[in-house]
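#help-structures

NK: newbie question. if I give both the sequence and a SMILES, will the prediction place the ligand too? trying with zinc ion
OV: yes, paste both and it writes out the complex. here, I ran yours:
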Amino acid sequence: MASKVKSGLEDYSDKQRFNFDIYAFFEGGQELYFGHETQVNVNIVETVTIPLPNNGGEESELEKCYLSPTKRRGVERRTLIWAPKGNGLLGDTLNCGIPHTCSKAECPICRVFGGLITSTTEVEGENEKRPATTLIGRLTHSGGVAIQELGPEEKQRAMHPSMIRKPPESEPTPTPFKREYNQPGLLYPVYNHCLSMTDSEFSTVAYAFMSALARLGAGNPKGVKIYDAPLVREDKEEPWIVVDRYLAPLGKRPVVSPSITEVEEAKKQFRKAAFSVAGKEQEPTDELTEGNFQRYIGDAAIAKLSEYLTKFEEEALNNVDAETDN
Ligand SMILES: [Zn+2]
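OV: that's the protein plus ligand as structure tokens.
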């Protein structure tokens, strides 16, 4: 039998493909809750433990708050499913949701995030059954370990039991419970990586990334922003974000070591890498180009992402007239 050597990537587009990366610092504008596990009446936030290098002394470690990449990925995918499309939602238009992904190569969401149908499934409103499919995503998420070593804070909250749990005639005594929160002002370096995507596919990633900012976190409050501080110029605050578009990975990756706990040290490490291309440190500037490698930094990165946001709007959200016989 002949061996199968093809990747399995369905030829949906004949456009040039590139790799894309997004590197950014998120800042929590208020306390945030990213659940880890729920014990009896205590809601614990997710943390990670980082072993520190043993410099001849005693072994030590750090506990840090964590905005896990898998949670970020889930929020991003939902912002696409719930994106406005005419009078409805993009996911409903495509018949694509969570966990029931459509797993079709032509779906702008599944094409990028991947899809899985474990066994042949009948879907309401569809004539044909959906075959068992594995569509490999080409977008991956990483980072999320907070820079500052600032443990979670615990707060008392009151839950009002519903009628179902308590007879209506009994006294409405609130049930107290404790919930931990990630403290405000924590900085989270995060990274999104895209493998062999067309500009159109990356527009989906850009939309999901920017749209998820206001919606990260479980329950309320929610939301982060991209951290603002001088980046390219000393006298101008800019969002801490780098966007790369390339064939070969010539840029040094602005990834912050999780063992760093000082914000200034983390910023120094990020900044140094952001301005390093092909093994050389460059003069700080908004855009760096080396052959097919393009890097956009700060406001220039936001401007570049905005071009892709507009592209996504035009291609995926805005063609309302074509579908409503107006
Ligand atoms: Zn889909």
